[in-house]
Specification:
Elements (H helix, E strand, L loop, with lengths): L3 E6 L4 H12 L5 E6 L7 H8 L9 E4 L2 E4 L1 H10 L5 H10 L2 H21 L6
Parallel strand pairs: 1-2
Antiparallel strand pairs: 1-3, 3-4
Helix pairs in contact: 3-4, 3-5
Length: about 120
């Protein structure tokens, strides 16, 4: 439906999984569908992501309102749709509603993801 938010993430990345769990708990849109890219299989959404050349190793993908958002843009969208309930949620919303803040923080977040995957012995998607 038009009010559905699809969040595609790396299920083996601890940071990505935590983000997906947080948004599952605090959804503020009609329907929230959380998809682990490693187990999603050949779906229309995964084909759309591939067709757009969006690399899930470079960031999460959010699909909302007929648009695909990747990486920092997806995180910004999640913050815009997020609730202000709870301290972590308020901090996330405060930080990532600002597009400049997201763009500055995202490379560090991506580096932390890559380090965590390497330390955990997990391969890229």
């Amino acid at each position: 439906s038009p009010s559905s938010l699809w969040l595609v993430y790396d299920g083996e990345c601890p940071f990505c999984s935590a983000t997906a769990r947080m948004y599952r708990l605090r959804q503020s849109v009609g329907d929230l569908v959380v998809v682990d890219a490693r187990t999603a299989g050949d779906t229309l959404l995964m084909r759309q992501i591939a067709a757009r050349g969006l690399d899930l190793n470079e960031g999460i993908v959010a699909s909302f309102g007929g648009q695909l958002y990747h990486g920092a843009d997806a995180l910004h969208l999640l913050a815009m749709l997020g609730s202000d309930n709870g301290l972590v949620n308020r901090l996330s919303v405060m930080l990532f509603r600002n597009p400049t803040m997201v763009r500055l923080a995202y490379p560090f977040m991506k580096a932390a993801r890559n380090i965590a995957l390497k330390l955990l012995g997990r391969k890229p998607i």
